Amino acid sequence: MNHYQRNSATFWLFLTPVLVAFALVIVVPFFVGAYYSLTDWNATARAGQGLTFVGLANFARTFQDPGFIYSFIVTTIYTIVNVALINVLAIALSLVVTSRLRLRNVYRMGFFIPYLIGGLVLGYLWQFIFNVAVLSVGESIGFLSFLADPERLLLGRVPTAIFAIVIVGTWQYAGYIMMIYVAAIEGVPEELYEASRIDGASEWQKFRSITVPMIAQAFTITMFLTLVTSFKQFDVNFALTSGGPATTFMGKPIFGSQLLAMNIYQTAFTGNDLAAGQARAVIFFIVLVVFSVVQVTINKRKELEM
Question: Which CATH architecture has domain 57-305?
Fold first, then answer.
């Protein structure tokens, strides 16, 4: 056995346990779930026993459900807004902590800490802030008295409840995305900034003409991460609003701030319609793959243009 063959054997020896674990945890459950989505699996029928093959009936019912359609629309809007806010805030923070500001490392740690807090904890924490702390501030400070009106609570109306989820999601994730931008900015050669200073370039010109093109690859990574994370949002949605308040869509009462992941959960485990929930999960997976591929393709093309 030559040197190349020994290295190849060692490579596959170490990689095999990971591949086996990936197959058992991800690949096999995915295809099993895809099969169950074509059956009448429910809470009274054990998986694999006494199931009837119904074809695409669960998918047809899904696309006829106003709750699913509404959740899909709301999730898309939430994702667009959340991705934009997270990346704008993250790059602003990264510029702050890569400047000559004193205690910048302390600020990095402070901005990153919210990412380490679990989504359920954040949801309940911000629920207290929106429902109790904001009211107290409004009652204590005269010119903010409008905040003391219970009818103006963020979580009490559909548009503002969705915006509240955006606030929490942005607050939680911006620090993590900031660290990716920080790593990219610190990799920009200092000579480029020195040359721009000699030429009399302003800070905005340096950012637009040097920083942005040099960290283009970071934009692809951060956009992908925020897109996937926003689309899969569940824990904050569950803890903060539980899908409420109620509203109507296509003449049917539904949860006004229920995102797609929570809709799948409610269908499968609250409605005890496991097959329909699995069908929605398959649709969710396909949509997420399509959105991610389109986003990465567009960003890669822009990298070349820069």
Answer: Orthogonal Bundle (1.10)
